Amino acid sequence: MQATQQTIPVQLTTRFSSTGAIWIKLGVLYLLVGVGLGIMMGASEDFTLRPVHAHINLLGWATMALAGLTYAVFPEAGRSKLAQIHFWLANVSLPVMAVSLALILTGTRQALPALVISEMLAALGIITFAINLFLNLGNRQA
Ligand code: HEM
């Protein structure tokens, strides 16, 4: 017996809010920097800045773009005051963290306070993100 092909109607018109767009655009900029650093490490065979590369790619691209997608799907959370606080904490802390970590790895120990403070700010950003999602994820409104 031959199986007949069935057409399953699929809703292709789902629209996401543009709330998360700025997060995704910044994320892809971090990805360009992170990948550029990776290529430089590979070409020079000097892997000293490996943790900088990993943090730019994972916090800058993966985490940032995922936050953007989450805020696009849940614009109520994306438009909240907590999202604004999260945005600034994430985007102020990461460049400082990347530069101070690079300085420490290349021998400038004086950069340690900047690294500690930027790491704390980054963690605060993640905590803000978590609180925002727990408070505002229920209210999906396109
Ligand atoms: C063209 C793109 C990329 C290039 C050329 C590249 C290059 C490199 C190189 C040369 C290393 C060091 C390997 C070693 O020490 O043996 C490395 C490590 C690593 N990369 Fe990439 N990478 C790329 C993209 C990415 C992306 C997109 C991510 C994450 C989203 C990522 C995450 C990591 C992590 C987690 C490590 C290990 C860090 C560590 O051990 O401290 N990389 N990469």
Automatic annotation (TrEMBL):
Signal peptide: none annotated. The chain crosses the membrane at residues 21-42, 54-74, 86-105, 111-135. InterPro entries: Cyt_c_oxase-like_su1_sf. Gene3D superfamilies: Cytochrome c oxidase-like, subunit I domain (1.20.210.10). SUPFAM superfamilies: Cytochrome c oxidase subunit I-like. The keyword Membrane applies. Keywords: Membrane, Transmembrane, Transmembrane helix. It comes from the Bacteria. This is Cbb3-type cytochrome c oxidase subunit I. It comes from Noviherbaspirillum galbum.
